[in-house]
Amino acid sequence: MKFKILKKSKNSRARRGVIETDHGVIETPAFVPVGTQATVKGITVDQLKKDVGAQTVLCNTYHLYLRPGDETVKKMGGLHKFMNWDGPIWTDSGGFQVFSLGAGLVHNVGKLPSKSHAQAIEEKYKDQGESEHANKSFTKITENGVEFRSHLDGSKHFFTPEVSMKIQENLGADLIFAFDECTSPFHDYEYTKRSMQRTHRWAERSLKAFQGKKQALYGIVQGGKYRDLREASAKFIAGLDFDGIGIGGVFGDGRGDTKKDMRNVMDWILPHLPENKPRHLLGIGSPEDIPGLVKQGIDTFDCVIPTRLGRTGEALLAKGTLNLKAGKYLQDKNPIDKKCRCSTCQNYSRAYLTHLFKAHEMLGPILTSIHNLYFMEELMKGIRKSI
Amino acid sequence: MKFKILKKSKNSRARRGVIETDHGVIETPAFVPVGTQATVKGITVDQLKKDVGAQTVLCNTYHLYLRPGDETVKKMGGLHKFMNWDGPIWTDSGGFQVFSLGAGLVHNVGKLPSKSHAQAIEEKYKDQGESEHANKSFTKITENGVEFRSHLDGSKHFFTPEVSMKIQENLGADLIFAFDECTSPFHDYEYTKRSMQRTHRWAERSLKAFQGKKQALYGIVQGGKYRDLREASAKFIAGLDFDGIGIGGVFGDGRGDTKKDMRNVMDWILPHLPENKPRHLLGIGSPEDIPGLVKQGIDTFDCVIPTRLGRTGEALLAKGTLNLKAGKYLQDKNPIDKKCRCSTCQNYSRAYLTHLFKAHEMLGPILTSIHNLYFMEELMKGIRKSI
User: Fold this and answer.
1) Which of the residues of B are catalytic?
2) Mean pLDDT across the stretch B196-216?
């Protein structure tokens, strides 16, 4: 993998560049659609190329390890062949999914906790120590790795940095991530620090175990909501021989302005990252967050928002979303967005899309996901142009 | 609409022809994919054209009347514009769906009853008269029409031949059907005869009410499993000024050889139909039935089998089906069918498709439905060539 910076903004840390892989290039800043189980939900590869204009996709190591199994994917010729996507593919490390079964589950947090979340968590745990939380999870974290139970059948599994590398090599994505522990914003300073230090040791072990000759390996910065930890983690990961830098974590704790908390974390990290390595922000973000995050210096993003919203009938607009399930567009001949050039907006009315959602037809999620993914591609094109 | 016969078989009643409509031609014999709610389930119009090669689709009047409403479809510019399909469209009359809420529900019969069906029905009703059956249904049939309750919300509605014509004109399909009562194979001779005579009066009323200037109207032959009724119905419908002839009903009663019962019904009807009008067999058939039915003189077929099987992981093969849910193909690199040229077989392995079904991913039903619909198109191409 090669990363070239083509242009730097004069007014911000934004860069325009290109990531070159054996399966083609990714113009950055880029949005990476998520294909958790080796498929972007409801969208064929043909649609992803022609209707969406996607450059690349990200699959989830945890899910593919459980089903169909990384060994099976390897036997079938690797992820590219298996899912028929000949462009660049990313796999995450499994750390976030394992977190989701552990503290993520106990603390009930997604990527950006809300205020109501924060209050509920505070209420729930006000009389309990941190150790208490950990015991309620599906995971057990030790120096060696993470023992967890499958969300599918409860079976026990053990991920270590070495296991994650092996799985990701079997899957055969172009861009892969070191194994990390994602911490919750409801973890205290002491736990977050211990976890971060372990993640750093896991980063070194990932690098050592990594043998992918045609793969590029990203390290992951953790450190929670604590400035000194984020700075320390940025410096540490920057100092290792990774091809790129991932930024992980759940941002803010919902008690303040979560979006601002996320921006703060970026401001703490980005100055300490090397200019010549691409930076990926894991699991973020929404169309309203991305332009600001690019200015802070992020190159690539992956997020399920466009397809998740698409499945629930929420179409992305320049401002906010259009709720196609609400029924108010049942006789609206207009497309989702008159200015949009996507195949959904060129061919279908809000009335038809509303009908599809009301009638529980698969085509509703499909057409709306295509619009939403195209919207993200156009957003990123505009951002690249503006740099 | 114009129907031209291009060639007749020397060994059978099979004909090769073409149905010309304002929205393009249908080469016959043809299979018509079903898009019940103005969408072939999970398949975009683009896929239907390019991946499947479909010539035409059939939508269901009953479903579209209830949701989004025929008036809404009319306001949105008609079915072609609404669903973005610019080829020929058919709508059925609503008769079969109304039957499904009535005797179809009470007798628990689909298009081709099985032996176990027949036994269960016989057991259930051995001490009850026919009138008893009718009272358990969601419908009330009178000379004027059918009162029924919506399967969606239980609301009351009333279909007459005049209402069905009006709805179908609002929907704006190219090829539409007269309103009829479909009878159950568990209806006795007397009821079937009375019903058929009423269907004949409804056929005359449909013709009288029909005002579609750019639409073609098909009459429907009924008469159940009784030879003299089928012959009488064929002659009566043939004698009216319809553009085409539909053949309706549920074939056989499952107590004998249902497929043979269906072939018998065709043999009773077809000799009495005019050569110069196209013949559509409603709601039939499976790949193994179609070649024989073409030889008996049928020109067009509509059936949900390819998409229904596609959704449940059953891929059509030259002989039988491949069950992609069974798990035995989880490491099979082969496509569904090595000889198949469809986009699914060209690009995806059985292993990947099995994974998609195991992982409950929408793409499994989508890709398998594309294969199954393509399979039907190829089957029909082969049949047309052979005539």
Assistant:
1) 92, 302
2) 96
Contacts of B42 in chain A (CB under 8 A): 362-363, 366
Q: How confident is the model at residue B336 (pLDDT cuts 50, 70, 90)?
A: very high
**What residues of chain B lie within 8 A of the CB of A356, using their CB?**
37, 39
Tokens of B353: 């498709």
- Number of alpha carbons in the 13 Å side-chain half-sphere of residue A214: 12
Q: B200: which 2 tokens?
A: 């004949």
Question: Is CATH 1.10.10.10 the classification given to domain A2-303?
Answer: no
| Interface subset of A 262-281, CB within 8 angstroms of B | none
Output the average pLDDT for chain B.
93
Burial of B284 (0-12, 13-18, 19+ CB in 10 A): buried
* Residue B23 falls in which region: left (phi positive, over 0), alpha (psi -120 to 50) or beta: alpha
- Tell me the CA distances in angstroms from B39 to B78, B109, B172, B319, B336, one per residue in order: 14, 25, 15, 28, 25
Is the CA virtual torsion A162, A167, A173, A178 positive or negative? Answer: negative
Please compute, for residue B327, the number of CA atoms within 13 A of its CA located in the half-sphere on the CB side: 4
At A311, the amino acid letter reads R
- On the CB side of B225, CA atoms within 13 Å amount to 22
* pLDDT band at B237; cut points 50, 70, 90: very high
> How is residue B376 written in tokens?
């039907």
Question: What value does the mean pLDDT take over residues B343-371?
Answer: 98
Question: What is chain A's mean pLDDT, rounded?
Answer: 93
Put simply, whether A64 touches B (Cβ < 8 Å) is no
Q: And the tokens for A294?
A: 């690019």
Summarised one tens digit per residue, pLDDT across range A112-152 is 677 776 777 666 656 554 444 444 567 889 999 999 888 88
Q: Smallest Cα–Cα separation from B291: which of B114, B51, B31? A: B31
CB contact under 8 A, A351 and B45: no
Please determine, for residue B130, whether its predicted confidence score (pLDDT) is greater than 60.
no
- C-alpha to C-alpha distance for A322 and B82, rounded to whole angstroms: 19
Q: Is B259 helix (H, G, I), strand (E, B) or coil?
A: helix
B362–A366 CB contact, under 8 Å: yes
What per-residue confidence (pLDDT) applies to B2? 97
What's the pLDDT tens digit per position in A280-294? Answer: 999 999 999 999 999
The CA distance from B91 to A72, in Å, is 46
Query: What pTM did the predictor assign?
Result: 0.94
Total length of chain A: 387
CATH 3.20.20.105 in chain B: give the residue spans: 2-303
What is the edge-to-edge ordering of all strands in the sheet holding A57-59? Answer: A30-33, A300-303, A279-281, A244-247, A216-221, A175-177, A89-91, A57-59
Q: Please, which pLDDT band fits residue A100 given cuts at 50, 70 and 90?
A: confident
Decide if A345 touches B, using CB distance below 8 A: no
Q: How many residues does chain B have?
A: 387
A261 noted as active-site residue = no
Nearest CA in chain B to A43: B363
- Chain B CB contacts of A46 below 8 Å: 343
Q: Chain A within 8 Å of B42 (Cβ-Cβ)? A: yes
How far is B25 from chain A, CA to nearest CA, in Å? 22
Residue B67 sits at the chain A interface (C-beta within 8 Å): yes
Cβ atoms of B237 and B259 within 8 Å: the answer is no
Q: Which of A345, A363, A374 to mutate to test the interface with B (most CBs of B within 10 A)?
A: A363
Query: Long-range contacts for B107-110 (Cβ within 8 Å, ≥24 apart)?
Result: B107/B133, B107/B184, B107/B185, B107/B186, B109/B184, B109/B185, B109/B186, B109/B250, B109/B254, B110/B250
Nearest CA in chain B to A39: B363
Q: Does B308 touch chain A (CB under 8 A)?
A: no
Q: Does A65 touch chain B (CB under 8 A)?
A: no
